[in-house]
Amino acid sequence: MKKTRLLWSYQIGETEKWLNEQAKAGYQLENVNRLTRTFTFKKGEPNERRFHIDFNNPKQAKRLQEVGWHNVVEAGKWTFRQMEEPKLYPSRNELFKRLQRHTLGFGLFVAVGFSFISIILTFLLLFDSFQGEPGLPFEVLLIIPISISLLPLLIMVYALRYFKREELKLLNIETIAEEATIKKFRFGWDFDLIATKRWLDKMAIEGYEAVKFTGFSVHFKEKSADFIDYEILYTKKADAHSFQFNSEMGWQHLYSKNSVVFGMSIWSRARQLGEVQDDLLPIADRKGMLKFQTIVTSLFLILISASNGFVFYTGIKLMSMGEMLFIFPIIWVLNGMIAVGGVLVILNMWNNYRLEVTALKRKQEEQARI
Amino acid sequence: MEKLYKKYIPMTETAFYILFSLNEPRHGYGIIKEVEQLTVGRIKLGSGTIYGTLSKMQVDGLIDVFSDEERKTVYERTSIGNKILQREMLRIEELYANIQRYKEGNG
After folding, report:
1. The whole model's pTM is what?
2. Taking CB atoms and an 8 Å cutoff, what residues of chain B touch A230?
3. How many CB pairs (< 8 A) connect A and B?
4. Minimal Cα–Cα distance from B79 to chain A, Å?
5. Which of A114, A282, A362, B93 has its CA at a distance of 20 to 30 angstroms from the CA of residue B82?
């Protein structure tokens, strides 16, 4: 018997459950074809063994065999293992990394591929309208490439959400389902994370606990304990173990953005009076993280400010040459504002960095005394 | 291996207790509880400290990370970890013996 599951490698949990059901019904897995996404089964005795799908994990193979797993199918870097009542499972770290690589790869592929198509289409249309052929005006024709590039954008947004959901499922991390009572608009909260952390602390003192982060705002509810502690982690690479570890230690996952280059995540923990405050990062490692975050964001902002400054400058030049269109000044003012704003945010960020490091040093000295 | 001995011996007290507590596979929270018990409440490890130490040890192969039935992370000491712990315990035994001798001499 053959069965096809297109997205099996992204829905690992579901696929494992499905394989368990097949085994229970007496269909034993024989082969997996990665290209056609097809699973081949052979009719046999029903069994209650559990499946586990492992990826790129040769290091743990020996230990897993010791505890009783046996390899059913090996296909490329994939290993399908089965066992009666497993106590020990391989970790999901490699799968987590794979999912992230694919998110990035897919994003790039869609973005580059479709903008390429829409550029070509635009040129074709331009060429067509210069030929003087009777037809629709250029502005109307422009809708075609624009809508063609909008479609992949929608696909991308959907796909990224899908990947994110699967990522959290893979890590067994629950998201909060609680209703928010207030929403606070905060543009660019994910830029200056130190400032955001200070703001969250202030909101907690005022009695509000963050439950959700969106593009431009943060949603709060009335706080559930005496204190709400926050941690914003910024690491050079995302790591599945730390995610699982944090959530097992009672930290609530609020938001995370992971890429192959770096990972950012926001965590909160409710604490009653008298309880010891937990931390997600040793004090000694904090300075490095803060610096890394400040530098990365600064570089990004410098890039934005510089390019907008450049457009502003050329705009002024053009204006002095007498080229005028009413929309231009608006664009220039915007460019100028973004350039200046970017620089101000950078300065503020480094000031926050300085404040945080001073606070850290004080904490470190206190700890040393104890 | 020599390189690892150099890196890990002597160990910090928290690193020692974390590795020591893994005489059986444990969750992160289990390690904290075990260390607290071993030191009669003197050492209460924070998540950050314990995770930092565990991930360093994992990179160097002293411990390995698995999951349990509920898909919680489980830490296990490897044979390399055992060797390092043995060597460190010898060092501490020497320390202890010297303290005893000193006490007897002054007693």
Report:
1. 0.79
2. none
3. 78
4. 11
5. A282
Intra-chain end-to-end CA distance of chain B, in Å: 41
* Beta bridge pairs of residue A52: A81
Q: What is the pLDDT of residues A276-287, one digit of tens each?
A: 888 888 777 788
Other CB atoms within 10 A of residue A356 CB: 18
Backbone dihedral region of B14: left (phi > 0), alpha (psi from -120 to 50 degrees) or beta?
A: alpha
pLDDT digits 0-9 by tens, A207-248: 999 998 988 899 999 998 999 999 988 876 667 888 888 988
Share of chain A above pLDDT 70, in %: 89
Beta strands in chain B (DSSP E): 63-67, 73-77
Q: Which 159-188 residues of chain A touch chain B by CB within 8 A?
A: 172
**Ranges assigned E (strand) in chain A:** 2-4, 27-33, 38-43, 50-55, 70-75, 78-83, 89-90, 182-185, 208-213, 217-222, 227-235, 252-258, 263-271
**Size of chain B in residues:** 107
Distance (Å, whole) CA A20 – CA A14: 10
B86: Cβ contacts below 8 Å, ≥ 6 apart: none
Q: Which of residues 31-90 of B touch A (CB under 8 A)?
A: 44, 46-49, 51-52, 54-55, 58, 64-74, 76
Tokens representing residue A179 in the block: 């209703």
